[in-house]
Write a structure and sequence with these properties.
- By secondary structure, the chain is of the alpha+beta class.
- The model has no long low-confidence stretch (mean pLDDT about 80).
- Keywords: Membrane, Transmembrane, Transmembrane helix.
Length: about 190
């Protein structure tokens, strides 16, 4: 009895390696109609994806007006959570170049307001951080200064940081909200 050779147990028949046809003969293998149709379909899919990516807009704002609105919405939300101020809030705003040295810009706002002295800094920070934790933001808070102040850092999925500082000031509680937008797209 003879043992079968390992070459007889192949799943696929051995194929000859491809070779270029001699000069003057037509190309047979790769230029068949099925190959050309497949290449056309693949090309159409690539073109469709490329056009879709080029035309689609990101959900994050890329203009100065858009990033300004995004930051001011969050600053207004924090202000609303703190309660009614003793006097109107004061906003200091500026537009600065992006820190990465690119052609984009950033919107920076610092809002200061005075809250009634009856507001407890710890309770006010807990209200704000609790609201932002429900929105699944990264939240941290800690004591600030020696007068019983508190500070919090809120960072959302949109990567807009908000820094909140509450400091007792005799007759009032001084609240400072600082935020910087993401960089705008280069013009």
């Amino acid at each position: 009895m003879t043992t079968p050779d390992s070459r007889t147990w192949r799943l696929l028949a051995p194929k000859k390696p491809p070779r270029l046809p001699p000069k003057g003969e037509r190309w047979g293998g790769m230029l068949r109609p099925a190959t050309l149709i497949t290449l056309g379909i693949v090309g159409a899919i690539i073109a469709t994806v490329w056009i879709g990516v080029a035309v689609s807009r990101p959900t994050a704002p890329t203009t100065l007006e858009g990033v300004t609105a995004e930051v001011m919405t969050e600053v207004d939300t924090v202000t609303g959570l703190l309660g009614d101020p003793v006097e109107p809030a004061d906003d200091a705003t500026q537009v600065i170049p992006c820190p990465d040295g690119g052609a984009g810009q950033q919107y920076v706002v610092t809002r200061t307001e005075s809250l009634p002295a009856s507001v407890n800094p710890r309770d006010a920070i807990d209200v704000v951080t609790g609201a932002y934790e429900q929105r699944e933001w990264k939240v941290s808070s800690s004591p600030f200064g020696s007068e019983g102040g508190r500070e919090a850092l809120l960072i959302g999925k949109n990567l807009v940081p908000i820094e909140l500082t509450l400091v007792p000031d005799g007759t009032t509680l001084q609240a400072t909200i600082h935020s910087e937008s993401r960089c705008t797209a280069a013009p």
